[in-house]
Amino acid sequence: MKIKEIVEMSTDELLTKRRDLRQERLHLRLQQQSGQLEQPSRLRLLRRDVARIDTILSQRAKQPQAIPAAEPKPKKN
């Protein structure tokens, strides 16, 4: 998965994708333990994709939220 694709996804989509990738990684690790894993390199790719998604999510969390234009507060006399 390319970083450009990840950046274009919404936060909800990223959370869903991260959950799916982690679940797939779990299944691949189980296959590896039982000796049935055909593509060991897939584990590495999944781990890196999850890290990319985590990075984007943490960057978004650190960004200041857009403050909607509010009416000016009345001054106290």
Furnish the topology, listing elements before pairings:
Blueprint: H1 3-8, H2 11-34, H3 41-62
Features:
77 residues; mainly alpha; Helix Hairpins; 3 helices; 68% helix; 0% strand; elongated
Structural overview:
It is built from 3 helices and no strands. The protein has helices at about 5-10, 10-35, 40-60. About 70% of the residues lie in helices and about 0% in strands. The longest helix is centred in the first third of the chain and has 24 residues, at about 10-35. The chain has a single domain, classed as Orthogonal Bundle (Helix Hairpins). It is an all-alpha fold. The termini are far apart.
**Series of secondary-structure elements, N-terminal to C-terminal:** HHH
Total count of helical runs of at least 4 residues: 3
Strand-pairing-aware structural class: mainly alpha
Overall average residue pLDDT: 89
The CATH topology is given as: Helix Hairpins
Unreliable stretches (pLDDT < 50, length at least 5) are none
First and last CA, distance: 59 Å
- CATH class categorisation: Mainly Alpha
Provide a compact summary of the structure:
Helix 2 packs antiparallel against helix 3. The chain is 68% helix and 0% strand. With 77 residues, it is mainly alpha-helical.
